[in-house]
Design a protein that fits this description.
The chain has 264 residues and is mainly beta. The chain has 1 helix and 19 strands. Helices cover 3% and strands 34% of the residues.
Length: 264
Amino acid sequence: MPQVWQLEVSKKNNNIIIATVGRHKYFLNGGAYISRNVGTTWIKVRKNLANHDRITDIKTDPDDENVFCLSELVSVWYRRQWYPSSTTPSTGDEHFYILNRQTSQKIRPSNDTDGATLIQVPSSWSGDFTRWKTIDTDNNYFYLQNIETGMYFRPEGDLDGDDLSQRPTNYTGTYTQWKKVTTPDGYFYLQNRETGMYFRPETDADNAIVIQRPISYSGNWTQWKFEYIAGSASKENFKKKVMLPITQNLLEYIRSHLLPETFT
């Protein structure tokens, strides 16, 4: 049987429980486990933790349900930020599919070469060619980078109907930058910084090319959503890059809860 060292219920969202489990010779899968449904299912989190199976104490942040404060063996207290796949991460590190509202299909580059056109593929496709991540620039613009090829995409020119194609990451100008233009019901348009236009699949067929259209094309065809992928870039784990300062509110909370309860 695993040794459960500690259980903590989030003060911000009581559906969230975090547990630490010890490692011993009969149970080698120690570490931190998070449940977002009152313990019905659990996800192990270990990446970016130096001693993931040697956590000496862990606390939930009183102000943010996605932030936890912990100490590990031979370490100081520090904070980690964690996002499940069902939420939109603020740092843009998660992988996602780009789904069209009209067709419910995904987009991907047609192959891995510079200049390959973007095409529409069935929603059942799930390989790295259909996965993307955002890389922020400024003023809410970002690049959309393909996970398989590592390239961005852009319209071929300024004209209505121009194809979208992938380009290397040294194409850092405004043609490869996009921003979300939100709609009232959860979908959004993706607007190009250089041309000001949206894009859409040309038809609803498999392998239909993706083309640029003016913003007057405001129907479902030009609307998209990002479907975040469980266990992708962050592997459902704590984000190493988000080293957050310990706030006075959290410090006072830690001081009053320093000794964890032990469960066996």
